[in-house]
Amino acid sequence: MSKEQEYLPLIAEDADVDTLPLTGHGPSARGRRKLTRWLIPALVASLIIETVTLVVLAAILGRKSTHPSCTVPGDQKVLYSPALGAVENQVQVYQLGFPGDMSPYQIPSSPKLDEMWSDLYNYGISRISKEEASLLPNKTSPIPGDPGYYIAELDVFHNLHCLNKVRMALDPDYYPDWRISTSNNHIATQKNATDHISHCVDWIRQSIMCHADTSVIVWQWAASLNETIVKGNVAHTCRKFDKITDWAKERLLVNAYDPFVHMEDDIVVPILHQEMP
């Protein structure tokens, strides 16, 4: 199509659509001048509107950059945590947990074992600054008697607490308070332990699915057995637990937290804010 045959993309408000020429050879030069006089201001106005829109969008996006949800390479959403700065990865091989490759946490139930498990999470309740609390995706409460600080807990420590309780429930002779009921022998006095363990098992399930370790378990030929066997002692990408515990130990509560004191504060969480019923 030649340049003369291209039709005008915009139509003046007072133009007759049915009679407007499709070519550049219109019968009235004055009409074309009138259209040009209308078209230039319209284009200028359009450019101004687009510029203002881009400025507003830039301001909104700039404000959103401080929101607890940020985008990282791969378009993965990462929620804000005050402990993100303590995250450091390392390569680690799991202990199999069978004879010949047992973990120190697999000794028989005893005060020593209880202390080892407790030491994994007994510093798990933290105090964080108001600035950190204002960036959380869910609102948390101020600490009574500790102005400017808010209570928080990293989920890893709750997971460890839950796993420890499941461990205790597996040895009810040593931990009678954690003896649970089954569907066939429900005992009212065991309701608290049963409900707690049910919560913990499902919480750990959700956490495992959430973190979805994609390390690869392999099968290898074992000449001594004359068969291919599964090998679980493989490398994993892990977060350094010591770095996380150092972060938590630096933020231990100064005083015992009193849950019966209602603390008012002015932090507003714009999204993902959920309150317990």
Which characteristics define this entry?
disordered N terminus, two-stranded antiparallel ribbon, 6 helices, globular, about 280 residues, alpha+beta, two-stranded antiparallel sheet
Which class do the helix and strand fractions yield?
alpha+beta
- Span of the ends, CA to CA: 68 Å
Amount of beta strand: 5-15%
Task: Tell me the strand order in the biggest sheet.
Answer: 1-2
Helical stretch tally? 6
Outline the biggest β-sheet.
Answer: 2 strands, antiparallel
What is the element string, with H for helices and E for strands? Answer: HEEEHEHEHHEEEH
Count of DSSP strands: 8
Inertia-based shape: globular
How would you describe this protein?
The chain has 277 residues and is an alpha+beta fold. The chain is built from six helices and eight strands, in the order αβββαβαβααβββα. The strands form four sheets. The protein has a two-stranded antiparallel sheet with strand order 1-2. A two-stranded antiparallel ribbon has the order 3-8. A two-stranded antiparallel sheet has the order 4-5.
Short description:
Pfam families: UstYa. The protein is of the alpha+beta class and 277 residues long.
Q: Topology of this structure?
A:
Blueprint: H1 29-64, E1 69-72, E2 76-79, E3 89-93, H2 111-118, E4 125-129, H3 130-133, E5 149-153, H4 155-169, H5 191-211, E6 218-222, E7 227-231, E8 235-239, H6 241-249
Helix pairs in contact: 4-5
